[in-house]
Design goal:
Length: about 300
């Protein structure tokens, strides 16, 4: 039997954001994933391999090549592919477009948290950052909050305006503080190493979704934000000790690891406690989420929906 190769456009046409978050939730009811990352370097280029194995779900290996010099050539600086293997016999079951898995895994990860932590009546959603991932975040959040209005802020206003031209109804914010104060949900996907969002701006009942920081030196919110909110992460294993958003404030005694209320493996605790509390979710990603997303994509592909 031939192994399906699932491309971006044909694969995406069969996917649904709410169904994906349900699949991610179900994946966390299975035995905890075993995950491992490996890196190879040829300055300035990188090969990243992320692997995960979940008993009962299967195995996945996601390979990414990062070639910064490609930008000057007018081609993508990040490329790759994902292989999904059978849990029963280890056989290759699918090869899936790297960008399809990354887009849906990243935004779906954040959307699952928002479905559990954001107020259901949230009507104003702010997207911080107008990069590639911002489009996926808009699509994901619109699926769960169809009555909401959306605003985008970006350091370079022209880039935010360019994004707004492609999405009907998307407004552009020129002042970040004003936009944060007015939002019910803030979803941030930037490459910032210094906090952009200040805790003094946050309002009762808000949900803050942090995606951008992935290195030990990166942060999107300041210490005040963390001390004012109840803090959640997708995975304790991929965030604590690894990502600056969590690692730095723990090392400086602003918070402790015990201040993190829950990750996805503790679903009973992963919920809003009151209407007025501020919730912060750190999206750290991880190969186990890639695996869960791949399994959902293949299931939809084989169903032919």
């Amino acid at each position: 039997m031939s192994v399906p190769v699932i491309p971006f456009d044909a694969g995406e046409a069969r996917l649904d954001w709410i169904a994906l978050t349900d699949a991610l939730a179900a994946g966390h009811l299975l035995p905890k994933a075993e995950i491992a990352d490996t890196f190879l370097y040829r300055d300035p280029d990188t090969l990243l391999n992320r692997a995960a194995w979940i008993d009962g779900l299967g195995l996945a290996v996601k390979s990414a090549t990062i070639f910064p010099g490609n930008t000057a050539k007018g081609v993508s600086s990040i490329n790759g592919g994902v292989m999904l293997f059978s849990d029963a016999d280890g056989g290759l079951q699918a090869i899936i477009d790297f960008h399809l898995v990354t887009k849906w895994k990243t935004a779906g990860d954040s959307l699952l948290a928002a479905r559990r932590l954001a107020r259901p009546d949230s009507r104003h959603i702010l997207i911080v950052g107008a990069g590639t991932q911002a489009h996926g975040l808009h699509a994901a959040y619109r699926a769960a909050f169809p009555q909401a209005t959306f605003t985008v802020w970006n350091r370079t206003v022209a880039k935010a305006r360019a994004m707004a031209e492609t999405i009907p109804g998307l407004e552009v914010a020129e002042d970040l503080e004003t936009a944060v104060r007015a939002a019910d949900i803030v979803t941030s996907a930037t490459m910032s190493t210094n906090p952009l969002i200040l805790g003094e701006w946050l309002q009762p009942g808000q949900h803050i979704d942090l995606i951008g920081a992935y290195r030990p030196d990166m942060r999107e919110v300041d210490d005040t934000a963390l001390t004012r909110a109840r803090l959640f992460v997708d995975s304790l294993d991929t965030t604590v000790g690894h990502i600056g958003e969590i690692k730095i404030p723990i090392e400086t005694d602003v918070i402790t690891a015990q201040d993190i209320v829950a990750d996805y493996y503790a679903p009973a605790d992963f919920r809003r406690g009151s209407e007025d509390e501020i919730t912060i979710f750190k999206n750290g990603g991880g190969a186990h989420l890639d695996l869960m997303t791949c399994r959902y994509i293949l299931d939809q592909w084989e169903a032919g929906v």
